[in-house]
Amino acid sequence: MSKRKSNSGSCLCGKVSFVAKNASQHVGTCHCRTCRKWGGSAFMEVDCGNEVEFSGEQNISLFQSSDWAERGFCKCCGTHLFYRLKSEQLHMMPVGLFEDDAEFEFTTQVFIDEKPNYYAYSNKTECLTGEELFAMYAPPK
Predict the structure, then answer these.
(1) Residue 56 has what pLDDT?
(2) Neighbour order of strands in the sheet with 105-110
(3) How many CB atoms lie within 10 A of CB 56?
(4) In order of start, what are the domains of the chain with their CATH numbers?
(5) Would you give the DSSP letter of residue 124?
(6) Cα dist. 85→28, 45, 65, 81 in Å?
(7) Nearest CA-CA partner of 8 in 104, 105, 106, 97
(8) Residue 134 has what pLDDT?
(9) Which of 93, 116, 117, 122 has the most other CB atoms within 10 Å of its CB?
(10) Termini Cα distance of the chain
(11) pTM of the prediction?
(12) Average pLDDT over residues 68-91
């Protein structure tokens, strides 16, 4: 089970800040093409669940990236703030936003089948293909 604690952070300009009340201490990376297009490389994220409070919400813009998810960013400085699953309001937030990163541990990589050959991480992690990831969250038949 993932260790969780409250953690806070902000965007680059500071106009959006947040408190994630139930942030995982595990860092995951998504190598899917959409995440790589969004941030220019793999998306290193922290699962923050649905208990995230934002200050400066008027500075958050949303992009509907799929039927089930949206991506938020600061409309002032462009910082990527979250990937959010709409149905449950689950926030995956970039690890670089957090003020306290001392206890994070890199544990998981997803869409490993879409990872380009020009980079590789040396950390020992769990690796899942896109198909394996979707199978974990598919509704029972």
Answers:
(1) 97
(2) 60-64, 69-74, 80-85, 90-94, 43-47, 26-30, 105-110, 126-128
(3) 16
(4) 4-137 (3.90.1590.10)
(5) -
(6) 16, 14, 10, 13
(7) 97
(8) 84
(9) 93
(10) 26
(11) 0.90
(12) 95
